[in-house]
Write a structure and sequence with these properties.
The structure is a homodimer. Chain A is of the alpha+beta class. Chain A is built from 6 helices and 11 strands. In chain A, strands 1, 2, 3, 4, 5, 10 and 11 form a 7-stranded antiparallel β-sheet that branches.
Amino acid sequence: MEFKNAKEARQKIREGMWTKPTPGLAYGYTQANLVVLPYKYALDFFIFCQRNTKPCPILDVCEPGKYTPIVTAPTGDIRSDIPKYRIYKNGNLVEEVTDIKKYWSEDLVSFLLGCSFTFEKALEDANIPIRHIEENKNVPMYITNIECKPAGMFNGPMVVSMRPMPKDLVQKAIDVTSRFPQVHGAPIHYGDPKKIGIEDINKPDFGDSVTIKEGEVPVFWACGVTPQAAIMRVKPDFVITHSPGHMFITDIKENDLALF
Amino acid sequence: MEFKNAKEARQKIREGMWTKPTPGLAYGYTQANLVVLPYKYALDFFIFCQRNTKPCPILDVCEPGKYTPIVTAPTGDIRSDIPKYRIYKNGNLVEEVTDIKKYWSEDLVSFLLGCSFTFEKALEDANIPIRHIEENKNVPMYITNIECKPAGMFNGPMVVSMRPMPKDLVQKAIDVTSRFPQVHGAPIHYGDPKKIGIEDINKPDFGDSVTIKEGEVPVFWACGVTPQAAIMRVKPDFVITHSPGHMFITDIKENDLALF
């Protein structure tokens, strides 16, 4: 199923007509990760993202209590336009919900962060295989031994997503994705997974394992799960995020995020 | 006078050996605008900058009470490494000082913002004239009729800097500066000043008037004075900024801010 634009997709999600993952919905529109935090954590989290723009590229921030992402989706509503949300208390997942209005308060600050789904279309257009799409799986994600720059109470490891490809396509993948600095940009590593602390490429920390064919190398991009990893280490008393794969669909066309 | 690198320049400034404007000091190192605000204003100001990245490109933010810009100058000290600071109370300039230690508190949040001085070297390298440098003046700056996107308590007009040049160099100037998105990037306008609300090009709101020769057109870039204009409209009870032309010199090489 696909909607004709982001606004229509958000409307259907808001009405409860779509509760599944969002990849492929509203073709060409940028999808975003959501993090909602109480005010007391917001400035430190914002600085954390500012210092680690590659894994944590901020697309939009709403002032305390506001739920309209006025930069990326002026008709959107943070509280209802995502098919599934996760509610965390003291680091523990306590509930998955399709609407967060009952949890909303004037104290909450919402962040929308770029997502690598955005550049997958550009990779496909360049004839680079997207294995997890071919195999109908979630992208494999790994916790690395690369520490993010800490900020205030937040610190954590960089999480990466991985897409395997023939070695002679790696440079093309670098070229294509470096055009998208607001959605993780160029890969941070390719080749030996151990060099970034990944012991077993077949056991991702998040998402699904995918086939790496003979002659292919794994290519690693900074991943939007990184801010969530930092949040989970800090264990704030309250956090809301999207559920994995259930993203906020913005009005920003993917190509508008390309540099050239 | 010129120092061999940013660290040496900051050291001399810290020791009180240099109290004049900084353009030309520590050749090749990025200079930054400083804004220091109490915690209660910091999140809204940060969101204001995030929504208006062209005039307000953030290079570094220090957590409340911290004065080390760990991303851009890990050996720096926000409190002493600028030759001249301005202290504002309730929107009024109350003092100019060479050190802000006596004003420092755990409640203060510091922002370093990109400055168009950074791309002037690249313009010169492309044989584009920099009139205010030729005439040994400060760059002319104007308040436009373009409103920034508001955020929380902050709102204000975009301020622009202007550099006149022969019409056939404008495209080159656009190409050169679009490589530097973190220091205002490509011009926001060129040609008729009235189209952006500037009534008299010979009467800048800040800086000095410069000669526009026969056959030249004015080219306008978003300017780092914009966040100060927004702050002055809000009149916070307390703000510290650098004094015009007296910038913070970071360890970031200007070329490191170029996209390619």
